[in-house]
Amino acid sequence: MPSSHQTSRRQFLQGIAAAGAASVLVPSANRAFGFESANDRPVFATIGLRNQGWTITNKSFRFADFAALADVDENVLGTNVERVKEKQGKAPDAYKDYRKILERDDIDAVMIATPDHWHTKISVEAMYAGKDVYCEKPLTLTIDEGKLIERVVKETGRVFQVGTMQRTESGQRFLQAIALIRDGRIGKVRKVTCGINGMSPSPVIPEAPVPEGLDWDFWLGPAAAVPYRALPEMREGYGGGVPLYSNCHYSFRNWHEYSGGKLTDWGAHHVDIACWALGATDTGPSKVTPVEYTLPVEYRDGHPVVDDQYNAATKFRISVDMPNDVEMIITSEGDNGILFEGTKGRFFVNRGKIVGKPVEDLEDNPLPEGAIEDVYGGPVSANHTANFIEGMQSREQPISDVWSHNRMLEICHLSNIAMRLGRELNWDPAKREIIGDEQANSFLSREARKGFEIEA
Q1: Which H or E element spans position 127?
Q2: Long-range contact list for 367-371, CB < 8 A, 24+ apart?
């Protein structure tokens, strides 16, 4: 954006703090905030609209106008065009092919909420098309995809927000947790346990007719061409209802072809906060060990031997050797959240609570003034989109940057590779490769299906 429209991150966040209530911004003549003229508001488009795509769009009307939407399911697309029209008084243009959005000069930024296997291709092409990017977590399907995104962000100078909202909207308790650790309230951290829940295996899922309106080949995109699979039982409340068991909407998370199971779903949240607290957002582990785990189907050489059932791990306990002799445990057992243990105490934090003696002690011994703001880097934003737009304004990367996200996501990806191969992996965080294991390193990337390679 032009320099006349730029503002510093601290000035912007101070404006939010002065406004008081969550997600309220003070009026500004700056283009990104657009409170004085409709012509000054940033212009967005959303690509991928089911559930989370609508969620992030709906949270953004306060700050931006939506000129276009894209989805490969015409039913989802049509429903959300009407929703956006109702919200902003003007219908956005609708496309099945997201590339039509990238061709437009009037769109400043895209919000991406497709299945994970599409994230990198769309993100890279959007940046080369001159768009800033907000992309849902987990950002990548493989470790090498993360390296590519980092390179393109640096090359193009685009602003890129990852949708790990525990750093902002649901993050007050997590920021307090990090502040407690930085203030030495539990002494030297020895162990951190990330509880991220397991999942249930699926029954055999048969081939089924592709739902009317869904372009199944385009949905698969970079992934291998396979038949659509679904059982008739429905899962309600997810964008109007989808099959409870399928290899498509919602359930794609449970297939390594398209995602990484709970390790990259909830792991992308809690491992992120754990690494932030440990000061490990620009490094990585030295070893990842699958202590115990259950894969729902048989694997051979790291690949499932059947294609009609969920294949991501259902139960697991992973031990990760982190810097400064800290052990990280990632487990499907126990309460969902993060347990920090140090030489002087321990406490537990999740989206609903922060508990433990160090927390109780705050009543008589509060954190230093500004401790939470120091963690965040200024007054805390209560809206992830606002933080993104502020980055667009200042041309600085927002709170959920690609570098810290990829570093923690490498732990999640390595955990999945270790379970798929059934052995511990030694990791070089400087070279970002697995040490002495050619087969395991082959899982750091994945070849795209012909016709769906990244256009750069």
Answers
A1: helix 116-128
A2: 367/176, 367/179, 367/180, 367/183, 368/183, 371/179, 371/182, 371/183
By DSSP bridging, strand 160-162 and strand 132-135 are: parallel
Looking at residue 455, its amino acid is E
Q: Centre a 10 Å sphere on the Cβ of residue 200 and count the other Cβ atoms it contains.
A: 10
pLDDT in tens, 187-214: 999 999 999 999 999 999 999 999 999 9
CA dihedral 261, 262, 264, 266 (to 10 degrees): 150
Write down the pLDDT at residue 414: 98
Task: Identify the CATH number of the domain in which residue 21 sits.
Answer: 3.40.50.720
pLDDT at residue 39, as a whole number: 62
Total count of domains within the chain: 1
Cα 266-274-60 angle, rounded to 5 deg: 55
pTM: 0.91
Residue numbers of the chain with a pLDDT score lower than 70 = 1-39, 236-240
User: Is residue 46 domain-resident?
Assistant: yes
Residue 311 in any domain: the answer is no
Say if strands 189-195 and 326-331 run parallel, antiparallel, or are unpaired.
parallel
> Is residue 420 one of the residues assigned to a domain?
no
Separation of alpha carbons 280 and 322, rounded Å: 8
- The position carrying tokens 């002799």 is 325
